[in-house]
C-alpha cells in the first residue's frame, strides 16, 4: 500500500495524472452555467478569461444570453493543462409584451433618470464587491430551491415591450404570486444590496460566491439588510409590485460577474 501511494505521489508530481474537472451541477445552454471541482491549486480559464478557484477547488462559469455554443475550459496544474469542451444546446427566445406598467418607468423624466443612474451605480458597486470576494463563499455549489412556488409569468432572455415601447430584453425569471408572499433565499449567501430603486422597486441582492449573485425585485417589503448572512430557505422579503411592474410578482435575476444568467436553470427539476 505504502509503495502504491509513493507511485501515485510521483505521478501526481510529474503531472502524468491530471484529473478532468468533476462536475457538481450544470445546465449547458446560453443563460446556463457550469459548476465543478478541480485541484485547489489549479489555474482555470474559460476561453481567455481567468476563472476564480475556491479553497476546495470550486469553480463556476456562466454563459450569456447569446453565448457561443462551444465553450472551452482549460485547467492547468503547473505546466500541464487539460481542455474540456462544453457544448451548449441552442436556445431561442420569445417576445413578451407587458402592459399597464407606470408610464414613468418606460419613459422616465430627467429626475427619474438621475435616480435610475444612481441605482445602477449602487447595483454595480454591490456586484463588484461580490466579484472581489468571489473565493470565499460556496452557495453556488448547493442544490438551489425556488424562492417562491408560483406560476411563471416571464422568462429569461425574452425581448420585451412595455406599454408598447421596446425595451431591453428580460434579465430574469418572473413568478406571479400574491403581495406579501414570503420570498426565500434559494441558496446560502450574504446580502450585498437592499435598496428602494426606481425600476426594480425594493431590490435585494445576494452574493453566493464565485461572482454569482442573485436579485429579487419589486418586493413589497425587504426583510434583510446589507451584510446579513442568509441560509437557503431564510425569508429575505415579500412579493410586491414596486417599480416597473404591472402586478404582484417576483422578478428573480441572476448574474455571473456582470453577465445576466437564467436563475430557473439552477433549480433541479
Ligand atoms: Zn422580471
UniProtKB/TrEMBL annotation:
<keyword id="KW-0732">Signal</keyword>
<dbReference type="InterPro" id="IPR050570">
    <property type="entry name" value="Cell_wall_metabolism_enzyme"/>
</dbReference>
<feature type="domain" description="M23ase beta-sheet core">
    <location>
        <begin position="170"/>
        <end position="263"/>
    </location>
</feature>
<dbReference type="InterPro" id="IPR011055">
    <property type="entry name" value="Dup_hybrid_motif"/>
</dbReference>
<feature type="signal peptide">
    <location>
        <begin position="1"/>
        <end position="19"/>
    </location>
</feature>
<dbReference type="GO" id="GO:0004222">
    <property type="term" value="F:metalloendopeptidase activity"/>
</dbReference>
<dbReference type="InterPro" id="IPR016047">
    <property type="entry name" value="M23ase_b-sheet_dom"/>
</dbReference>
<dbReference type="Pfam" id="PF01551">
    <property type="entry name" value="Peptidase_M23"/>
</dbReference>
<protein>
    <submittedName>
        <fullName>M23 family peptidase</fullName>
    </submittedName>
</protein>
